[in-house]
Predict the 3D structure of the following.
Amino acid sequence: MDILFLVTCFGAAVVIFLWLRDLRIYGRTGRPLYRKAALRGVIWMALASLGIASAFFGQPFLGIGLMLAALYLQGRDEREKIWTSEGNLERFFGAVKTKKRQ
């Protein structure tokens, strides 16, 4: 097993974690930009999964490139500022105050 395959798997896990965090924040607040980020996260997760598949089948540089592209595109999505004085652990897990949806 190549080390680049393991790096690709770790990067894909990060993409999946960020997608789940956006999904959780949207579910708790109902903010439209987090909905858009969560929907796009499905596409970026699929791109990262394609990177894992290509690294598994003998193309580790293509796989890590696809995973890095997914990480870059995931970070480009615009999101609203929802945290004011929360600590790093709350931000890491996406803990926000629940608001009623209109």
User: Anything to note?
Assistant: Residues 35 and 83 are 17 Å apart (CA to CA). Residues 3-77+87-93 form one domain.
